[in-house]
Amino acid sequence: MSTPLHLHEDRLFPADPAVRQIARRLYAEVRDLPILSPHGHTDPQWFAGNAPFGNATELLLAPDHYLFRMLYSQGVDLNELGVPSRRGPSNANPREAWRKFAANFYLFNGTPSWLWLNYVFAKVFDLKVRLEPSTADHYFDVIGEKLATDAFRPRALFERFNIEVLATTESPVDTLDHHHKIQSSGWKGRVITAYRPDAVIDPEHEQFKDALQRFAEITGEDVYSWKGYLSAHRKRRADFAKAGATSTDHGHPTAATADLSPVEAQRLFEKVTSGKFTPTDAELFRAAMLVEMAKMSEEDGLVMQIHPGAFRNHNRWLFETFGRDKGADIPEKTEYVQALRPLLDRFGNSKTLSIILFTLDETVYSRELAPLAGHYPALKLGPSWWFHDSPEGMLRFREYTTETAGFYNTVGFNDDTRAFLSIPARHDLARRIDCVYLSRLVAEHRIDEDAAAQVARDLAYRLPKQAYKL
Amino acid sequence: MSTPLHLHEDRLFPADPAVRQIARRLYAEVRDLPILSPHGHTDPQWFAGNAPFGNATELLLAPDHYLFRMLYSQGVDLNELGVPSRRGPSNANPREAWRKFAANFYLFNGTPSWLWLNYVFAKVFDLKVRLEPSTADHYFDVIGEKLATDAFRPRALFERFNIEVLATTESPVDTLDHHHKIQSSGWKGRVITAYRPDAVIDPEHEQFKDALQRFAEITGEDVYSWKGYLSAHRKRRADFAKAGATSTDHGHPTAATADLSPVEAQRLFEKVTSGKFTPTDAELFRAAMLVEMAKMSEEDGLVMQIHPGAFRNHNRWLFETFGRDKGADIPEKTEYVQALRPLLDRFGNSKTLSIILFTLDETVYSRELAPLAGHYPALKLGPSWWFHDSPEGMLRFREYTTETAGFYNTVGFNDDTRAFLSIPARHDLARRIDCVYLSRLVAEHRIDEDAAAQVARDLAYRLPKQAYKL
Amino acid sequence: MSTPLHLHEDRLFPADPAVRQIARRLYAEVRDLPILSPHGHTDPQWFAGNAPFGNATELLLAPDHYLFRMLYSQGVDLNELGVPSRRGPSNANPREAWRKFAANFYLFNGTPSWLWLNYVFAKVFDLKVRLEPSTADHYFDVIGEKLATDAFRPRALFERFNIEVLATTESPVDTLDHHHKIQSSGWKGRVITAYRPDAVIDPEHEQFKDALQRFAEITGEDVYSWKGYLSAHRKRRADFAKAGATSTDHGHPTAATADLSPVEAQRLFEKVTSGKFTPTDAELFRAAMLVEMAKMSEEDGLVMQIHPGAFRNHNRWLFETFGRDKGADIPEKTEYVQALRPLLDRFGNSKTLSIILFTLDETVYSRELAPLAGHYPALKLGPSWWFHDSPEGMLRFREYTTETAGFYNTVGFNDDTRAFLSIPARHDLARRIDCVYLSRLVAEHRIDEDAAAQVARDLAYRLPKQAYKL
């Protein structure tokens, strides 16, 4: 009763035969380039320990909020899918959870998860039939068997995937032990970290108090004084840089920045660390810290990434029961023109500082971000992000930004994923879609084909390498 | 001097021959499915009385704000088009009004009204020539003659249109007499009502005071006490459910919701019914009533529809002279992520309550609505609405929502129309456009064709049936 | 080492062969129509003096912020490109600046500047090879030689470009000497002015104080009294009308309008001219002046253009160093529904006053502007503007506005440019894109081809002529 699974060679390419031919030629230029993954959320422990992954549910379903949120939206309990809660691991049987997933796989029709997963199934696991209720057990068995082999251990997959660099993201209170272990292991895979200080910068973060405490311990600084707090950041940034980091990352609710005087900054710092602060104080502190981080980046050369605009943990009950990152983060309107001005007044004309902007609010592509990046030397545009990391999302990103900012104020693709096995699928999709956009321009005589091929290669390899100083 | 009128079989399908073939095959799956019309504004009196319609102007032009607003925007007076004012019926000669319309029909080039009307002309009235000045009288005569025949009475058309269910929309102070008459008539057509309580919920509605008075009379409740007011709602919801209603509908200026304590709610109720309230009070009361309505829906099972975002009666002079619904309602920015949180905190994780969201602000499709509906079990997305009930509008809806929410968090099509004769045209257009979107996905190997056919059938029939509990 | 430069006859047309055929046929209808340029920023001195233009850098690069801002965003100094600063002219060697530009011309891949420039290179200068580092000197030489010939003087180019009317834009404190000289010269070219009073209306404009002073001198009115100030406007509007003006233009930060009583207006005027005013006062004064301008337009018949939404001079250091119009104006969110209501309450139903709306915020096309223009007789929609004056931008404009407002509430194309030589390129691009949009409608049977041809002709010629009373 099963149906063949087949990845079409021309998938995602335009239907028109002439345009498809152009897309094929462009794609041939980039298909086999190494993968640069300068921003993501894989676990460095995988590459440090190189232990085999578990089963299909543990590896592919339970940690992937793109997947379980869709089933949740249709009335499936997270516990049934193997998702751990605050009380501990799920008690679901992994095979049963996988069957549940297979029974609901049709929900992903038309979504990028369908494309990514089928790539993983076909290319990584060499599965020949579609995932559907009748093949759920076959999938579970085949995936489990393969994961137990050496060829499917993290380092082997890393090499098979032709990854040149993979960046993970760590908190300032992370010991970076996994990264040190990778570095000293003799393994040639380049896995680097990135400095993501939200937990010690955002006074409204639920871990703020604890994180500050650990920040003090790990740095030996008096992080409750403004001066010590800044020194602690400097120390840890240096540690991160030693562990390979070339960038920082900032996931604030808004893009607000503020350039405070040292006295103002110190007073505000005392307020937010006293625990007696308003939401406005918290917002101002995050804003001020973006400028502080920029100052440090001018010194130490780390590229700044700003990822604003998510209302985290929107579902109160789910957050209380299951915790963070459970598919309940919802984008909000995000303003950049006023918000970034204090930062840009100070660093916008810098040729050494590089700030990469992301958004979850597509309305700002043509209205705010492309005009800003098409003018300020310090600004570049990150790729379409999260909900917009998809064929339509990527096409819109190019359609809305290219005419004002061009291709060369963008930085190629970020997979931004925890789903290690999907990395080749995601980069392949991104390369294909850039070729789709370019093929249309070529067919409409809006760019020369040799220039389009150069752009395709630059987007796939040169621009991320340069923008992230890899 | 007339030109042939011809509905092309492939209208709205993509031009590329291979994609068009796919669209044709998908459309063949849904073309003949019965029509489910779960939300609209036809007049139940038509089906209760089954009297013949009047002439072309009275039936097609004077009541249709899509049409007369376009002519008005180009300097034609509403009175000339047969549109009644607050002072009474228009004194325009219906044939003259129709000629005026014919002379300006070119204004509709590129609009959905052009598509809908040509369908009505060709398929319903079997007209063979285009509407233009030289054929205006021919149209007026043919349409008038046909409307006088039994085959063009409301019930005959209802049957000819293959409508399985048609929902109208009534106010809580409506006696539902027409619906009772239909139910007891022995006619098999299923015409149901929907509970639209804006006039008794919105303190700023111009009918609020009168409506409350009638609300008291029709329910026998003390609607000036908070308890009696809620009881009156419960009673009328039960009456509506008996008259077939499966849903409620809420047309507020914003999507604001508020979960007040009983004491707060009662105080606020006293304020807004006293007549001494601020716009902020009115907004809060509407917000609180959405949560009250949700509570009742959890009990009685009526599906909630929320249609926010219209600035009603924007043209002051026109409103004073001609009244409501004269093409002068203008959309505004509409926020959902913060606005719906009180409602979702209480009911977002419910598997029994179903809330269908609509918007006039397309920027929220990918930013807010798809992420919300792609997570919360209680939420579904209504189709692209009103100004966006159009080929480009529908394509954008799919392009902006599918990758995050999939197809199965949407509910198929609503025609939402007063223009009874256009119902088949509108459903045909919606089915075609869904097939257009799917055909592109198939051609680009982003979905399998058998899955696409299943999605097309589900969107046309199964999903509205299920979402509206029909 | 050079590559041929070739403008493909089908550039910008859809790739699908059948649709391309339709686009070709539609374009043949409009290709050779005269150019109407009812809004732009060319320098009337060119046509008054008819002196030859200088070199490639002075004519094409240094004055064009579309070009130098892109190079600036990639780290090139403005001074190197021949851009003058507040301290005086650039000391860059023009040939060196041009080489710099040629070396970076790849940055414009995918942008409208690439399309416009290649048109200018190929069609105006008859260049046969692409601009690249190896051809930079060839370009500089050829362009310089041609510019020195009589055939490349401003009036000769004006005639060669088949321009029927060209509007420039002047401040109320401009003497209009160049226009008078053109008028009395016997030359038949029609170059008209437009009334752009921002400098005497916006209390926050850096020239406000000086401009008021000159406004007094040039009109002989007591412009520091409310009555005299209004009289000065009336006088100058009459002067402008005599110099051919048919329109006014208003470039405010927002679309706010306010209908104040004479007493309120006078008080506010006294406040803003005293120099002691808040940003709120300034905003209200600009808002009130839009209504005052509308009153005068009802009297003198000048069409009003409103161009809101740019945050001017966003880059503080650049503004202080280089001044205005240096590519650092960034769009912001812009609201129209509430903002325009005072103006529309007063004039929205007028059949004599005509107000043309523009936006830099594409989100308002379908949400606000199309519904407003599709209803109010006084409103029309200007074309996609500035950052959105591009193939994708124009297609989006049609896709987002046509279904609600139709084609006939729009006014054809404005080139809005200082770059005189690019005018034919820009109109050609606009005509092609309108044909692209129409060809898709024809191919999908959403419009009849003869109607589409009529629409194409109307957009290219009849509608701008009528809307701007040319």
UniProtKB/TrEMBL annotation, chains A, B, C:
The keyword Isomerase is annotated on this UniProt entry: yes
Gene3D superfamilies linked: Metal-dependent hydrolases (3.20.20.140), uronate isomerase, domain 2, chain A (1.10.2020.10)
Statement: the UniProt record of this protein carries the keyword Isomerase: yes
GO BP annotations listed: D-galacturonate catabolic process; D-glucuronate catabolic process
EC number: 5.3.1.12
SUPFAM superfamilies to which the protein is assigned, alphabetical: Metallo-dependent hydrolases (SSF51556)
Pfam families with a match to the protein in the record: UxaC
GO molecular function, a single term: glucuronate isomerase activity
Catalytic activity: aldehydo-D-galacturonate = keto-D-tagaturonate; D-glucuronate = D-fructuronate
Record keywords, A-Z: Isomerase
Coiled coil: none
Pathway assigned in UniProt: Carbohydrate metabolism; pentose and glucuronate interconversion
Superkingdom, natural source: Bacteria
Protein family (similarity comment): Belongs to the metallo-dependent hydrolases superfamily. Uronate isomerase family.
Protein name stated in the entry: Uronate isomerase
Gene: uxaC
